[in-house]
From TrEMBL:
The name this protein goes by in its record: Cysteine-rich receptor kinase 10 isoform X1
InterPro entries associated with the record: GNK2, GNK2_sf
PANTHER family per record: CYSTEINE-RICH RECEPTOR-LIKE PROTEIN KINASE 9-RELATED, CYSTEINE-RICH REPEAT SECRETORY PROTEIN
Reactions performed catalytically: L-seryl-[protein] + ATP = O-phospho-L-seryl-[protein] + ADP + H(+); L-threonyl-[protein] + ATP = O-phospho-L-threonyl-[protein] + ADP + H(+)
Species: Olea europaea subsp. europaea
Keywords carried by this UniProt record: Kinase, Receptor, Repeat, Signal, Transferase
């Protein structure tokens, strides 16, 4: 089960796994409404290429995060960012971001606004400001359809306790990265794995609010 939420500049990932992470670049989902589009040879498209160059050339940064703006003003101004999962190496981060910049143009060939998620990173861009506004809501919830075997109440208790500790830890992590993972023994045979991450530019308070909002979506 995993959930993503973006509220403007607030970005958050909550991942909840009963199984271990995979290790290759793994596509999850993309959102790019076709209501706003640009034409193939437009300035918007060439600005997008510039944005992708700036983002991929910064993909080995220690905190796995970079944001960049191309264009002076509307209609061709683009804000973009990527965030790599906090536990991937700079090499994997770079591979994921590079791949994302080509992949997204295949999956969203003419849309001005797009967001794409992989297990290892996410990439987002828009012609409207995504760095400072919070009215826009993009939310992705993916769930494992298998049920917990037995003790659903205990599972919810363990889950809630683990996620609350997790959120506190991620929000108060060292400045460079707002990332944390936690494990809990649900039964002797089932381990609960949890992961949370905010973009590192958020304050601890913003990150915690965002994570708590995400946690409240889990039943
Ligand atoms: C936009 O997407 C919708 C739903 O996928 C589709 O029905 C519609 O034709 C698309 N519009 C354009 C302009 O591509
Ligand atoms: C973004 O693009 C849409 C669709 O072309 C347009 O309606 C909107 O005004 C643009 N916003 C800005 C800030 O340029
Ligand atoms: C875009 O530019 C290329 C090369 O300059 C040209 O071959 C192509 O026809 C153009 N496409 C459009 C839709 O204008
Ligand atoms: C990051 O991107 C900026 C803007 O394109 C560029 O000037 C800078 O050299 C890049 N940083 C690295 C380490 O490549
Ligand atoms: C999980 O439990 C629900 C409610 O008891 C049931 O409707 C559903 O079919 C179960 N799903 C699976 C995959 O067993
Ligand atoms: C889970 O169980 C193992 C073995 O029983 C134990 O070593 C470990 O400390 C437990 N982990 C937690 C988080 O309680
Ligand atoms: C390593 C990796 O995941 N490569 C992917 C990059 O993106 C293309 C699609 O554009 C995929 O086909 C590759 O598998």
């Amino acid at each position: 089960m995993l959930a993503f939420k973006i509220s403007g500049y607030l970005f958050l990932i909550c991942l909840l796994f009963l199984f271990r992470f995979s290790s290759s670049v793994n596509y999850l989902y993309r959102i790019c409404p076709n209501t706003t589009t640009y034409s193939p040879n437009s300035t918007y498209r060439s600005n997008l290429n510039q944005l992708f160059l700036a983002l991929s050339s910064n993909a080995t940064r220690d905190n796995g995060f970079y944001s960049y703006t191309v264009g002076r003003g509307p209609p061709d101004r683009i804000e973009g960012l990527f965030l790599c999962r906090g536990d991937v190496t700079p090499d994997v981060c770079e591979e994921c971001v590079r791949n994302a910049t080509t992949d997204i143009l295949q999956r969203c060939p003419k849309e001005k606004e797009a967001v794409i998620w992989y297990d290892e990173c996410m990439l987002r861009y828009s012609n409207i400001s995504i760095f400072s506004r919070s009215e826009q809501n993009i939310r992705l919830i993916m769930r494992n359809t298998q049920n917990i075997t037995g003790q659903p109440d205990r599972f919810r208790t363990v889950l809630a306790a683990t996620l609350n500790e997790l959120a506190t830890e991620a929000a108060n992590n060292l400045p460079g990265k707002k990332f944390a993972t936690r494990q809990a023994n649900f039964t002797a045979f089932q381990t609960l794995y949890t992961l949370a991450q905010c973009t590192p530019d958020l304050s601890s308070g913003q990150c915690n609010t965002c994570l708590q909002d995400c946690i409240s979506n889990f039943p």
